[in-house]
Amino acid sequence: RQMCIRDRVSTQSTWGFKMQSVERMIDIPESVPWTPYLQRINQLFIDEKQARHDADAAKLILICNEIVNLSFAEKEYKYLREFIVSISKKRNQAKKAIIEMVNLTMKLNTEIEKKERFQTWETLREITEGKLFLEAEYARCTKSYCDMIIESNDLEKASEIIQEVQIETYGAIDKKEKIDYILYQVSVMLLKKDFVRTYILTKKIDPLHLNDKGLEQQKIKYYQLVIQYYLHEKMYQEVANSFKVLYDTLRDHADMEEKYKLKQTAFCNYILFLLLSPYSNQKVDFLNISERFYKKELEAIPLLNEAVRGFLTKEVIPLHPEKLWENFQLYEPFSKTSTMPNTAFHFECLQKEIIHHNLKVVEGYYSRITMKRLAELCNASPEAVETEIAEMVYDGRMRAKIDRIQGIIDFRRQMQPHDCMNEWGADIKTLLELVEETCHLINRENVIHGKQSQLISFPVSYTHLTLPTSDLVQISVVAVSLKKK
What we know:
Shape: elongated
Distance between the termini: 116 Å
Strand order of the largest sheet: 5-7-6
Structural class: mainly alpha
Order of helices and strands: EEEEHHHHHHHHHHHHHHHHHEHHEEHH
Number of strands: 7
Helix content: 55-70%
């Protein structure tokens, strides 16, 4: 286009009369009719130039806002984009005027048609990008821009744009807005199924900071998002911990009673995923905490209460898959109608954890047991029991050896030489203590009955005492019997 920049020209108005010669301050081709809108904008640009030379920031703000309001009122969105770019590039332009102009444009841009709104967001991102005093506006424009891209089902482009915003380094944004922004980034990555970047983004938020007053909604949203990540990674202990925090947050704030259904679901999921998590000391601790501090909630749900008690007692839990499915199929982790992924796998994990619990119980009562008998106790096939034993041994949760020829499982711990010596030394020390106690008991009886001549004297120290093994065993038996008397 042939552009006329700050020319003094005589133009024809739309009503047919001649306008007086004015200085053109806007880049408009000669072929474009000089409408009242453009005339008014041109005059505003003349005033803007004068105010800029006078360094009158207050007047600049009013003029810039007037240009934006007039453009939106006349629906001249194409000119609007050109004008705000031109104003932002003026020499010695007041930063406050640019900030106010961008914020007003962002506010009014939400009320126009989609196509024009999309192009305006692009223009605003171009204006704000790389300017430190517009970093907050750049982040907000980018978020709104990505919303429109996601609506057009272009998740790849949206994720590439939004992940480039390092919102945690922006000093012009408060903590609450930063957390909201990071949570938005996490949600976009979850939509894209990019779980690596999801993990990286979640680490930008310290869960301890979410305990501050006024961040309850952000805390709930954070744990709802990380639960999706943990479910994908099959980290069921972390899923249980997240549901526990979610339930505690909803329970401790009376103003969230409208989320009653979410609270009930969170507690049930906390207990169920705790049962699904692999056996560990942490799991046992959380089961004890649940039974002690959530007694009222467990009593309201007898099935979960019975399950928690079963996993805490040193007794074998009967495994009946049909009955188990009938009892648990209505809960979200197992329901076929649930939006939660891997529901069928969750039910398999529940059966596996029951077998693992039974194996730990058997390990506590048996040193050796046949595979056939162990399969009967666990109510599972010998192949399934063997597979689970191998998995627990590999993970370090059990010590066992399988003799597949004879069909015997040995749970005895294989001791290292120094452990054997330590145990033998402890046994000898116990034996000698029993012998010494026996001496005192015999001497006490002789004194009581006046038989001073029959007092038995033993060495003060037994470190150099050497006796045959048969004599040591006999002495220990006598000592134990006297101690009982």
